[in-house]
Amino acid sequence: MIFGENDYSNHLIVTNLQDKKINKIQSFNKEDWSSAYKNVEKELTKVPLTISKGENIKDLNGTLLRNGPGILERGGQWVHHPFDGDGMITSIKFENGQPFLTNRFVKTKGYLEEEKINKFIYRGVFGTQKNGGILKNALDLKFKNIANTHVVKLGNEVLALWEAAGPHALDPESLDTIGLTTLKGVLKPNEAFSAHPKIDLNSNASSELLVTFGVQTGPKSTIRLMEFNNAGENAGELLIDRKDTFNGFAFLHDFAITPNWAIFLQNAIDFNPLPFLMGQKGAAQCLKSNPNKKAKFFIIPRESGLFKGQPPLVIDAPEGFVFHHVNAYEKDSEIILDSIFYDDFPSVGPDENFRDIDFNKYPEGKLKRSTIDLKKKTSALETISKQCCEFAVVNPRNLGLTATFSWMASTSQKLGNGPLQAIKKINLISKEEIYWSAGPSGFVSEPIMIPSEISSKEDEGFLFILLWNGERRGSDLVILDAKDLKELAVYELPISIPHGLHGSWVN
Ligand SMILES: [Fe+2]
Where does Fe cation bind (predicted)? Predict the structure, then answer.
């Protein structure tokens, strides 16, 4: 079907949260949603994309990079959770507005071994088991670095990231895998390296930084905070390296930064490794909320900031579970931190099929604001929006500073859980919201916000969204105007990309 016939006539723009029109969007068809989950069939090189709707963005130059699971089934066996799928990188390079697509699987050691025999031979963190039952899986603690979570450029290399192990370096043009990298000796071989680096334009250092971390966890958890030069000839050089050890097991997927602080939220969960050791569950399925435990903020002074050399602060955090933070900023002696909170840790149980889950059984993510008082060592939580959402961003120029606007993927309906079908822009001060919806048969991903090069206004720029078009069972790239969420351009992609994870924009 050509795009014109599909035409997204169901897209609604609602300009006020109080407006009930957003509720009128039809509920989704689960097969439209689950049809995205299939193996990516081919690797393409610099294929020009044809516009289906709108116009090319004149003078746009740069590359959109996206990562996500690209292999979900081998020899008839499905992964237990899409997060266990091998990473596949898509790059869409814009040359004066004309996009070209290249895609490659990350050729990790495990991918190459399994590709040869078309069979899963590693257990997955999120519950994928080797064939042969519990006996075959018990005491097998080897894992596959699946490089499927995020993709960023650091120095001359593109890095495919997966938080439990080291980054894979890729050639920035061809996306061919160079191999596991230690970043010129910064990391030990295969050392944990977070999949949520922050590009910091607002630090006290003189140049752009890439700030990231690695965690070694156990009865105590050590956070290694690293700050790399991210501009000019010395891009990729490690400038700052600091380690802090905290009591207890820590599950830290993401963090937030301000010019002076790195902020981590240790969720109130326990890790019971026994079912993993016994071959019954994946490691992530052994995480469980502990209602008797307090979540903690670990607030680490940045060595590029005013409080360098000082010890970290540990402050009780609100209840709930967080994968992703949106942004943080400093206000006198407070840190204001926006995050997506779940009532509990969402996990796909051993007997559930991820392609047929009942969304109502899982907690939904809600945008909430923590106010952390560094003097009194207290924190308070308020809900910004009750609508289910994920993958929220601010203008990258505002990262670490006050931001008025945030853009995110949200459900079409206002309350309850469901697949992410809309892009929402919220004014974090007035709470006014506008939407662009791909419903009823379209499903969105993390919006990547690219600020305008000719305007410094916070909400001027573009949003890039990879969309699963359930009607034609294929992927589209949609470009929206960040200010009013008007559709500017839509491209039908020549590959089908499963619902993915994170990405970045490289100028
Ligand atoms: Fe993430």
Answer: 196, 253, 324, 502
Q: How far apart are CA 159 and CA 147, in angstroms?
A: 9
Burial pattern 456-475, b for ≥16 Cβ within 10 A else e, equals eebbebbbbbbbbbbbbebb
Distance 280 CA to ligand 1 centre (A): 26
CA of 199 from ligand 1 middle (Å) equals 15
Helical ranges in 325-443 per DSSP H: none
Distance CA 505, CA 228 (A): 18
Q: Ligand 1 centre and the CA of 340: distance in Å?
A: 11
Q: Which two tokens stand for residue 80?
A: 């237990």
Which DSSP string corresponds to 247-293? ES----S--EE-SSEEEEEE-SEEE--HHHHTTSS-GGGGEEE-TTS
Domain boundaries, the chain: 1-34+389-507, 57-189, 195-345+356-386
User: If you measure from the C-alpha of residue 390 to the centroid of ligand 1, how many angstroms do you get, rounded to a whole number?
Assistant: 10
**Residue positions forming the annotated binding site for Fe cation:** 196, 253, 324, 502
Residue-wise pLDDT for 311-341, tens only, equals: 999 999 998 899 999 999 999 999 999 999 9
pLDDT tens, residue by residue, 343-372: 888 777 667 788 888 888 889 999 999 999
Tell me the CA–centroid distance for residue 219 and ligand 1, in Å: 24
